[in-house]
DNA sequence: CTCACCGGAATTGTTGAACAATTCCCTGCC
DNA sequence: GGCAGGGAATTGTTCAACAATTCCGGTGAG
């Protein structure tokens, strides 16, 4: 089992804690954001154990404060808590992937079909698609993945709902965990850039029902593709 | 400002804490569930301050453990945390109500349109509608409200997604807070029982698009009605 | 050699006390 | 009545301790 201290053998205590003492409030929130970022960046890979002792000294906070941060992160299902065993970076399996796509197949087409489709939103989406296209042609895999996720985020934003945005962010974070858990996630997104283009085209044309149905088919295919890659 | 201790002047320490010492694990989780239940039951009304000192002694847990529970509840937006001021039972206003209906207008029609509509699910929904009807005729307002909420929960369940179920439960809990904040929530649900009947009828008939659109109109009306009641 | 068992060491779960920083609230002054 | 000042209460955070549990290495039996 991997442990967090493996990646940082030397303790980097107090790494840029918010200001000397003025930004006093909410250390726990700061800790949670740091851990969230490290996990999202792949610095902490799925399954890694987060030892209370090690992390608290490494971050320069007390064990109690760290536990408070853990409580918040557990609610976001970013980490998994096993009683008396400790907390681990969540490592999503096939069932989690299916759940991810259940959520996406519900809220993304709903946003496409019923969201408020302003001109700015449409232009923003078109520029994002363009970014994905150039990234693909340049072979910039990470940029392409980012652009793809950004597109689907802005799709959900069509609903205007912050809660759905939060849920989508959580889901995309979990997706990133899935990719981190795979030994290599090469060109998963490449197959889907074209379909994103078509999605935006249909939206531009005002054919929202076709856009929604196409998006559902897109998500179906992405799910089976991802499940296939995990299973093998 | 109301405070929690007003409702329980005499400290009821250790009120049915899970077993003598065997169910040791997860005191914080237990505390969170207790608070969640008390808030949902209207025992703790919106705006009530939750004092750390009072609550920790009243529940027989340490202040640190209580804070851990607070972290979890804040993530569910059941409580509001104001730095250096304390935590309060969330008191949703108009903007929160609008957000609630943004979420519902997205995920409920999506479930109706694209969810897996099994025979059992349909029968369950029909029995729930029946329950709401008899409750309305008996003047059992609380039962009717419960049945209505149960119906919409089972609508979301058509997606098969636990995350969406959790989100819906959170939203309905917030709705209950809205009602608790109103001096009296008399027959808000009565207007909508008929429309629930029609919703299920359309589902039974297999006309999912009409069901989805009807549900969206339903939610629009419910939102404006609720906003109107709050504003006055 | 494998495996079950056992005891110490490490880790988690939880508590209580302490202290700085902030906010609350009451009092006295104009 | 309004306003400044100054304890008192409350929050934010840390530290040290302890029970309960799990982990880990060795030991002995088969």
UniProtKB/TrEMBL annotation, chains A, B:
| Keywords, comma-separated and alphabetical | DNA-binding, Transcription, Transcription regulation
The record's annotation in SUPFAM superfamilies points to: GntR ligand-binding domain-like, Winged helix' DNA-binding domain
Residue ranges of the HTH gntR-type domain?
A: 25-92
Here the segments flagged for biased composition (Low complexity) are 1-11
InterPro entries associated with the record: GntR_C, TF_FadR/GntR_C, Tscrpt_reg_HTH_GntR, WH-like_DNA-bd_sf, WH_DNA-bd_sf
List the Pfam families.
FCD, GntR
Q: Does the keyword Transcription apply?
A: yes
Q: Which GO terms describe its molecular function?
A: DNA binding; DNA-binding transcription factor activity
Segments of this protein annotated with the region Disordered: 1-20
In terms of PROSITE patterns, this protein maps to: HTH_GNTR
Instruction: Give the superkingdom in one word.
Output: Bacteria
- Please give the name of this protein: GntR family transcriptional regulator
Q: What is the lineage of its organism?
A: Bacteria, Bacillati, Actinomycetota, Actinomycetes, Micrococcales
């Amino acid at each position: 089992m991997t442990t967090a201290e493996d990646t940082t053998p030397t303790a980097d205590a107090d790494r840029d804690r918010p200001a000397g003492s003025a930004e006093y409030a909410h250390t726990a929130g700061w800790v949670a954001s740091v851990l969230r970022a490290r996990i999202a960046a792949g610095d902490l890979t799925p399954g890694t154990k987060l030892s209370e002792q090690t992390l608290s000294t490494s971050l320069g906070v007390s064990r109690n404060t760290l536990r408070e941060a853990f409580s918040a992160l557990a609610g976001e299902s970013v980490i998994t808590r096993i009683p008396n065993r400790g907390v681990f970076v969540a490592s999503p399996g096939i069932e989690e992937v299916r759940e991810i796509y259940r959520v996406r197949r519900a809220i993304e087409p709903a946003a496409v079909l019923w969201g408020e489709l302003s001109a700015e939103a449409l232009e923003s989406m078109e520029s994002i698609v363009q970014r994905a296209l150039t990234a693909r042609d340049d072979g910039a895999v990470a940029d392409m993945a980012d652009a793809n996720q950004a597109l689907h985020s802005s799709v959900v934003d069509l609903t205007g709902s912050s809660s759905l945005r939060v849920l989508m962010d959580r889901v995309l974070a979990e997706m990133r965990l899935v990719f981190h858990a795979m030994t290599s996630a090469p060109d998963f997104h490449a197959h889907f850039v074209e379909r994103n283009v078509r999605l935006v085209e249909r939206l531009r044309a005002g054919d929202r029902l076709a856009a929604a149905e196409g998006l559902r088919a897109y998500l179906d295919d992405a799910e089976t593709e991802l499940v296939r890659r995990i299973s093998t």
